[in-house]
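Notes, p. 3: input format for complexes.
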Amino acid sequence: MSDTTPRLEIRNITRRFGGRAVVDDVSLAVMPGQVTCLLGPSGCGKSTTLRIIAGVDMQDEGTIFVDGALVCDTIFRVPPEGRSIGLMFQDFALFPHLSVADNVAFGLKGPKAARRARVEELLARVEMLRFIDDYPHELSGGEQQRVALARALAPRPGIMLMDEPFSGLDNRLRDDIRDQTLSVLKEEGAAVLLVTHEPEEAMRMADEIALMRGGRIVQQGAPYNIYNAPVDKAAAGFFSDINVIRGRVHGFLTDTPFGQFMTPAVPEDTEVEIIIRPQHLKIEFDRNGVGPAPTPENGAAARAVVDRARFMGSESLLEFRMEYDGSMLKATVPGVFLPKPGTPMWLMIRRERCFVFPATGSTQSRPAG
Ligand SMILES: Nc1ncnc2c1ncn2[C@@H]1O[C@H](COP(=O)(O)OP(=O)(O)OP(=O)(O)O)[C@@H](O)[C@H]1O
Ligand SMILES: [Mg+2]
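Output follows (369 residues plus magnesium ion):
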């Protein structure tokens, strides 16, 4: 095993139910100490993938390797308990009749003193040492979650599989528990595969995101890359609200409210969708019907009228009706900015932040659950 051997690798995993491939030719590798998030809408096959890796379900095709050694193909199969895998699922039930100490010690072998030391070490790490003699019903949801994490990590699994482990917690608590969990996981050096349908959670936790849709991984990479170079409209729209500006290509150019766009890679007469996130629109005041001059990076300004403005906490969300064609565009600006409906303004778009996709073919919106 070399430094470049993934801790966990799955190759070409397919799982069918009633003839339908709910996991369809999925391949992934996770290095020790790395967190990979399997991110996608409800029903796309995330939990099924995790169950196959854990060994509680079996693939119809494909292979699974741990530290370069085969643990499962369609004939040979290491049982779940032989895979050095820690599990943490949404309904992580602690054993109600066991104390916190005994819950965490549950999967541990070896001399009593060593087991106790490991239990104390992990409870200290999740800041739960003072609850060591308590029972689960005496703990809050977040505290139980931390004990469950300690329990899953106690036997030093090489791989941690986590399926929406934070979804039962309220928002503020969730952020804290996520951050704490992440630092404990990093210290333990396990390879982590975390399932979530929340992009914010994936961005916060992941070294790498595998974006899944309809049983397939449609894009894989660092959060920054997936966010800034989505493969299609649905991938862009999974991470934030998006604006879609439609147009048709003539001579490598597309007319938009913001002037002509270069669309060189798209064939003549194709309908295209230009995608821009709301935070990448620029807003300027109207000065007696005059707007800002065109710039190479932003193109031309387009006149629009405020339709609605809402304060969202750290930013304001504005909806505009475009004078050009009556279409609606959304823009966000930091802080409080709440112009009255009907106020004329000028919009510009940061062109290097736009994504252009052909409107047909693989750009349908994401499938429903
Ligand atoms: N044992 C089964 N028999 C038949 N169909 C199944 C079985 N398990 C899962 N499926 C189907 O496979 C698809 C994927 O399910 P899966 O649980 O993997 O989705 P998911 O991505 O985890 O969704 P969610 O975010 O809602 O948890 C679903 O359409 C589901 O109905
Ligand atoms: Mg699931």
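The chain has two domains: 8-236, 240-358.
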